[in-house]
Amino acid sequence: MRTAGWLALGVVIVGGMTLAVSRAAEESPAPATEANAPPTAQPPASSVPVTPKNAAPPPSVTIIGASDAHGVLGRDVLSAANEDMGRIVDVVVDRSGHVRAAVIDFGGFLGVGSRKIVVDWNAMRFGKIVNKKDSITLELTKAQVAAAPEYKEDTPMVVLGASGSLQPLQAVQ
């Protein structure tokens, strides 16, 4: 019931904003009066009517409930055996905008001696993230992640995936 209330409130707000923008675009500036007109000897030879520029259409709006989606940057990642695997520090997308992988800051202590590892997005499970303290589960062992090569920006990346789940990125010609 709460979600329906938020949805209705969002629709009313967007509708009001759209109406206000369209009315503002339709209104023309007030005509100059003698009191605020600049002193001139003669009226201008040609007067160009001032028309308001067309306002851009309102953006689309999607309302996502607070319990339906969560941010992932900075989240702890655990193995299926409940081992600490690090934190998500970046998300990798391909040229079409599809999420392909996550960069995990793995190992070390308080950021010293850690290294970044890239893991396939499909190797992660997000089912139990209700609040900021909840972690994400990775379908890889700590030994598998420890053996992965380090990720360095602007170099080809090796994406570590769960057995058989990673699809190769096709080269764009």
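the 2nd protein, sequnce then structure:
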Amino acid sequence: MSPVRRCSRTACGRPAVATLTYVYADSTAVLGPLATYAEPHCYDLCAEHSERLTAPRGWEVVRLSDPSAPTRPSGDDLEALANAVREAARPHDRGDGRSGGGPQAADPMEVARRGHLRVLRSPDS
């Protein structure tokens, strides 16, 4: 017996990278990282077959991410990075005229504070 688990699809001999399980009560197919050991009611799939997986009509496919796998940046991640760069490049008008301590002196955009929340004035106003 081979130490590498193979794809469960017929005539596919590629190594398995994901495990497919069906939850019939919820009409859901769950595709997650390769299980630690082979289960009789689960299917091991190679990378190609796991990417092309579709479920029957009316079923939902839930894809669980592998926490050890590197993640690709999403559009939201890239947009947040671009906004952070724009904010860092924006010139700040912070006068040294205030010498008192406290949050008002540290950040002139702060208007009010309630607990750990701060109300900030828009930089454009």
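The helical segments are 47-51, 75-89, 103-106. Residues 6 and 13 are 6 Å apart (CA to CA).
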